[in-house]
Write a structure and sequence with these properties.
single chain; 66 residues; mainly alpha; 0% strand
C-alpha cells in the first residue's frame, strides 16, 4: 500500500481536477459531447460501409463478371 503522503498528494490532484472541471462546466460538457458525437459518427460510418459492402456483394453474387 502507498504511504500516506503519496495518498494525500493523489487525493489533492484528484480534488484539483474535480475543481477545475467544476469551474469549466460548459467547456467540459462541450468536450464530452464532442467526443460522444465523434464516436457515434464513427460507428455510423462504419455501419454504412459494412452495409454497402454487403449490399454490393449480394447484388453481384449471381452475376458472372467475365
Amino acid at each position: 500500500m502507498a504511504p500516506p503522503s503519496l495518498w494525500r498528494s493523489e487525493m489533492y490532484l484528484f480534488r484539483l481536477a474535480l475543481a477545475s472541471l467544476a469551474n469549466r462546466r460548459f467547456t467540459a460538457f462541450l468536450t464530452a459531447f464532442a467526443i460522444a458525437l465523434s464516436v457515434c459518427l464513427l460507428l455510423a460510418v462504419e455501419r454504412v460501409r459494412t452495409e454497402a459492402r454487403a449490399s454490393f456483394a449480394s447484388t453481384i453474387s449471381g452475376t458472372d463478371l467475365i
